[in-house]
From TrEMBL:
This is Cupin. Transmembrane segments: none annotated. Residues 153-176 are annotated as: Disordered. It comes from the Bacteria. It comes from Mesorhizobium humile. InterPro entries: RmlC-like_jellyroll, RmlC_Cupin_sf, UCP019307_cupin, YjiB-like.
Length: 176
């Protein structure tokens, strides 16, 4: 059912700590533009759930992206755009605004800020997490110091959520 486009090197983005959003000290955010082919005759969210799940990324959800700056300090997150399009600011207020559309995937290492700035009415996002870590929602300056401690402790996943055990994430998120 799920069909991936040819494996491509993802776009990589690194963001500095801006005092509110720590971002990740070592690992870049990865974006796979048009990574997933979404046939018209299937539930596009189910396609992402199958791909992420087959690569060990679970606890998936279907929704949108919050309209406020936030990050997760104890877990990594993958976002698959199942329908529609949106402008998302990644990395906090000093980060980068990207237009994402159906078929795109963004992989956010723990600490990466994200915020929906605008979206089409039909936006549908599938999110998922690696099999370890604890979901949290950080958005205040008071959470920053603790996040600096917990973010580097979140281990690298065993598999890329899109391309599995030999996916680009494993090299991009090396322990170095």
């Amino acid at each position: 059912m799920a069909q991936l486009t040819d494996k491509q090197e993802p776009l990589t983005f690194r963001f500095a700590d801006d005092g509110l959003v720590p971002n990740h000290p070592r690992w870049p955010m990865l974006v796979y533009p048009g990574a997933v082919i979404l046939p018209d005759d299937v539930d596009p969210a189910a396609v992402f759930e199958d791909i992420f799940g087959s690569n060990g990324w679970g606890d998936s959800w279907r929704n949108g992206i919050y309209g406020f700056v936030h990050y997760h300090s104890r877990i990594h997150e993958v976002l698959g755009i199942a329908r529609g399009a949106a402008e998302i600011r990644f990395g906090g207020d000093k980060g980068k605004v990207l237009e994402v559309k159906a078929g795109d995937v963004a992989v956010l290492p723990a600490g990466t800020g994200h915020q929906r700035l605008s979206a089409s009415a039909d936006l549908l996002v599938v999110g998922a997490y690696p099999p370890f870590g604890t979901y949290d929602l950080c958005r205040s300056a008071e959470q920053h110091a603790e996040a600096l401690r917990t973010i580097p402790q979140v281990p690298r996943p065993d598999k890329d959520p899109v391309h599995g055990g030999d996916g680009p994430l494993l090299k991009a998120w090396s322990e170095g």
